[in-house]
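Hypothesis: this fold can be encoded by more than one sequence.
Test: take the structure tokens below, design a sequence, compare later.
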């Protein structure tokens, strides 16, 4: 797995923060606010593993950080979330992840665990007795899930960035859209007729991929295409993840929030 710094978790969402340190997903029917979700979560069993308190350093639009939100909630773990303004990174973030200085970082009793897929596996192993497992038990199935999660990180961020970080009408937008749609179609083929990537329940690959869903609207508006039109089964899967899993619904920003955030970034980049 390549690092999630620079082009993905850090620089991809760092230049325009739109008061990130104060922003969080809006409260909508069936989707509690981030603040309420954190308070509710923190009422859980704080000593569930003996690892110490859990603190998540995150940015509300980060698809990588929101993976960790989903995993923590799916496991029913108590945690505190500290929002990061990546244009003005906190001393805590810089000291916790000095190599990449990016979110997410999970502080476990004060010790830092970095990189979102690494954090997911840590949560699954350290809190094996809590909630539902993320990875399957069989070694081959685990390897299969890791492959597809790695595919998500290898393909989607790079393709998507060309769509939303390029000037309107630039050749890079069309190229990025073409590659993004191809990657989504590959993922849709892997999903097949299954409700979720591992079968009947939300699992590791679902958690890795579904935080990109709130960004689909942005990709569509800037790239001039429809995810549902190109990949109807994958679009239905994304809706299913939210509708059937509170841990997902409570963890993701609204698509319009993401789009407005990106519009602000594009203005700062001089792209609009």
């Amino acid at each position: 797995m390549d690092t999630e710094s620079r082009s993905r978790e850090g620089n991809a969402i760092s230049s325009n923060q739109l008061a990130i340190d104060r922003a969080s997903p809006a409260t909508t029917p069936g989707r509690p606010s981030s603040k309420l979700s954190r308070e509710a979560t923190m009422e859980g069993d704080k000593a569930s593993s003996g690892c110490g308190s859990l603190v998540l350093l995150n940015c509300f639009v980060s698809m990588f950080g929101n993976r960790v939100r989903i995993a923590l909630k799916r496991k029913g773990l108590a945690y505190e979330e500290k929002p990061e303004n990546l244009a003005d990174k906190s001393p805590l973030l810089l000291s916790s992840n000095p190599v990449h200085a990016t979110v997410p970082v999970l502080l476990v009793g004060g010790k830092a665990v970095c990189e979102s897929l690494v954090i997911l596996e840590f949560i699954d192993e350290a809190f094996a007795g809590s909630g539902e497992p993320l990875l399957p038990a069989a070694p081959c199935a685990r390897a299969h899930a890791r492959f597809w999660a790695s595919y998500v990180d290898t393909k989607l961020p790079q393709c998507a960035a060309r769509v939303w970080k390029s000037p309107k009408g630039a050749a890079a937008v069309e190229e990025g859209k073409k590659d993004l749609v191809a990657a989504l179609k590959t993922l849709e083929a892997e999903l097949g007729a299954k409700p979720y990537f591992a079968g009947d329940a939300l699992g590791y690959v679902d958690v890795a991929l579904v935080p990109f869903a709130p960004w689909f609207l942005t990709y569509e508006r800037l790239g001039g295409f429809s995810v549902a039109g190109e990949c109807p089964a994958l679009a239905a899967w994304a809706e299913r993840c939210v509708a059937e899993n509170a841990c997902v619904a409570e963890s993701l920003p609204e698509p319009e929030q993401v789009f407005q955030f990106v519009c602000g970034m594009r203005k700062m980049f001089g792209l609009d």
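The longest helix spans residues 139-164. The first strand starts at residue 54 and ends at 58.
Hypothesis status: open.
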